[in-house]
Amino acid sequence: MESCCRCCMPCLHRLWDRLWPDARRRSDTHDNHVIANPAAEAAEIRTVSGDIRVPSPKKRPVQLYAALFDFEARSDEELTVKEGDKLSVIEKRGDYVLAKKLTGSLESGLVPANYVALLQDEFAKHKWYYGNINRVKAEKLLLASQNNDGSFLVRISESHSDEYTISTRGEGKVYHFRIQRSSIGAYFVSDKLSFATLGELISYYQRNPRILGVLLKEPCAQQRELFDMEPWERPREEFQLHKKLGEGHFGEVWEALWTAENRKVAIKMLKQEDTKQDEFVKEVQALKSLHHPKLIQLLAMCSRGEPVYIVTELMCKGSLKSYLTGAEGQVLTSAHLIYMGSQIAEGMAYLEDRSIVHRDLAARNILVGDDLVCKVADFGLARIIKDSVYTASRNTKIPVRWTAPEAAIHQRFSVKSDVWSFGVLLYEMMSRGKMPYEGKSNKEVMDLLTSGFRLPCPPRCPPNIYHIMMGCWAAEPIKRPSFHALHSQLDSIYARIYFKTIEV
């Protein structure tokens, strides 16, 4: 319905209750604020700082796979593939995957799961790929004296984390072209031409500059090695501390003004008495090497003298823990929370692909920005590991309420112990910031977990979300889902809520 009069409000409220029952108490007192067509617009609630909209779900492209061997179909259900064929995997079916070709016939069918492999970090080999740099940085690099017209680079889109941008220099200016993704994962600038890989797209436009209208002649002249070693060190005098935001394992966290850049930032300080500076250095190294829209971004550091500063982007809403217990957090709907949880799973999936274990995943270590944007923070306990399991020393401080039993008892941390922590994080979110195992000591928590006890379903928590939590808390680590699976599940549930096909 496109319009509504006062007499129709009870009907609209009944519809609203059925679709969004946990938002009822807010919409009751704001009749003039109820959306006339909730199926066509993002749902919104009234909060202390204005309206919080739930964005439309984006179509997330299927991840790119490659065939490892030739496979000849033996039935109509199977798909013939050649070694090197690019595929999108739709779903796993036992020992097979349902796959679709991205070039040629675009057929789909079953292929043995061990015949395909996920392509990770496929662009890192290209000199033109600069990852997660912004528009301003790209223009600065391309306009440098060592570059000429036709110099170009490719970067992650600032507004769409699953898309890319070509930035190229022409006539002394820099032009930007958005590379979009189709629903099957293909890349395109114009919807008339699509390519299985980003490399194929770039090669095509290098050979056919008239179609794009600009030359893609040579990758940006600045060497990737020099770019990766960009000077992070900044003078301490460039930062003016404004207010203390909190205190963590390594020391205080402050909001500050970076005067040279005229922007607000967050600064983490190393405690003077903390002698484990090697741990601190590892955190910085991890931050410098990780680039994803759902991970907090390192901007600079001051390592000469004490206290050492780690400078990161500032998230205006603070930690998810404090946000959930604040005025806005208390009126969030299940849809809002599922949307936020999906973002966290997306960031953790990126770490999972790189065998990085966070070890302290909890609401206190998630930061919130405008429009419900969530980013994973605090890599102070993260480790880059080769055998996928990290064994901690016995005197390491462990957040027992968020830690998997095998990690708390045997100090065996892995991506799967992070999945357990994600389940507890979902509990924090769905209970609007409640302390897990409230009223219990750490020893009592461990005794409960070893006896098979699990946290109960929070009030107003959808059953399918609690089912996901229980999956994260499987006693055997191997039976817990991957972060990619969690991201996919939460995305799917969120889309169904948004388009009003299920109730929460």
From TrEMBL:
Family to which the UniProt record says this protein belongs: Belongs to the protein kinase superfamily. Tyr protein kinase family.
Protein EC: 2.7.10.2
PANTHER family, sorted: TYROSINE-PROTEIN KINASE
PROSITE patterns: PROTEIN_KINASE_ATP (PS00107), PROTEIN_KINASE_DOM (PS50011), PROTEIN_KINASE_TYR (PS00109), SH2 (PS50001), SH3 (PS50002)
Residue sites binding ATP per the record: 268
Top EC class, one word: transferase
Protein name listed in UniProt: Tyrosine-protein kinase
Domain (SH2) ranges: 128-220
Keywords per UniProt: ATP-binding, Cytoplasm, Kinase, Lipoprotein, Myristate, Nucleotide-binding, Phosphoprotein, SH2 domain, SH3 domain, Transferase, Tyrosine-protein kinase
Subcellular location(s) per record: Cytoplasm
Swiss-Prot/TrEMBL catalytic activity: L-tyrosyl-[protein] + ATP = O-phospho-L-tyrosyl-[protein] + ADP + H(+)
Span of domain Protein kinase: 239-490
Record-level GO cellular component terms: cytoplasm
Domain (SH3): residue spans on this chain: 60-121
GO MF term set: ATP binding; non-membrane spanning protein tyrosine kinase activity
Keyword Cytoplasm: yes
InterPro entries xrefs: Kinase-like_dom_sf, Non-receptor_tyrosine_kinases, Prot_kinase_dom, Protein_kinase_ATP_BS, Ser-Thr/Tyr_kinase_cat_dom, SH2, SH2_dom_sf, SH3-like_dom_sf
Species the sequence originates in: Betta splendens
